[in-house]
Structure prediction request, 268 residues.
Amino acid sequence: MRTIAVISSVGGAGRTMLTAALAGLLTNRRHAVLAVECDPRNTLALYCGLHDPARAGLVSHMLAPSGDVGAAALESEDGVLWLPWGGARDDSSTLDAVQAAKVSATLHGQHSWLRQLLARVDLPGHGVVLIDAATWPSVHAAQAIDAADLVLVVVPPQPLACITLPRLRGELKALGKATLYVANAVSPAAQLHTDILTLLRNLLGTELSPYRIHADTGIPEALARNENFCISQPHSQAAHDLQGLATWLSTWTRQSARASASSAGGAT
Ligand SMILES: Nc1ncnc2c1ncn2[C@@H]1O[C@H](COP(=O)(O)OP(=O)(O)OP(=O)(O)O)[C@@H](O)[C@H]1O
Ligand SMILES: [Mg+2]
Prediction:
């Protein structure tokens, strides 16, 4: 099982969209997939067909730990398991002050809380856990990075994303994390986007994925209609880009699982 954290140094970068799209596309490539939301925004469930933010999820498990974290997970028709952040209360999607303090203390005090939780999840050898993390820097992003075998950094072609990237990259390098950077919502007709892509290529070299995801108004439209963008618009450029990225991640997952199995003497 491999864990991929989807993070970014600016909000609205496309982390939740990418997590949800990749979950479906990796399932199509015969991976068992669990999509986990480590972000109090609690929007991931909207991508798996729910019309309202999820009540149960990671945070409810944190507040009332049971042996089976899977009890809070949802399964979509295509077989993806979804573990949203959740809201913990039946009547609201926000926590009360005592609950919020407990969540905060856990995230601050137990740096490997999420990693330890995911170690109890039993996905087959080529299974993939995708973590949709809150904007970096945050305790939520730190938990996701700690749990990750690969960090997928989403970079929108915006000046603020470029300005904050070197610090994030420095931290990931210091932690020794395998990292892939992906440009998202790129409009080739915009000069600023072309310039920023050139800058990213010079800065990141082969760490920048060749699969940039094009901007497509169909992506927010599909979310508004509760549709899966890659299914509703399979011939769009952005769907093609997402397929390319999913194939890259599928290959990485299989190779990485094989490498760690052989270094562990054959055990997966
Ligand atoms: N390639 C794209 N083209 C057009 N719109 C996009 C693209 N990627 C994401 N979006 C839209 O941008 C908005 C933000 O995307 P998303 O919620 O996935 O970002 P996020 O990084 O998770 O944001 P947040 O910081 O709010 O958690 C959404 O409305 C989404 O539909
Ligand atoms: Mg999000």
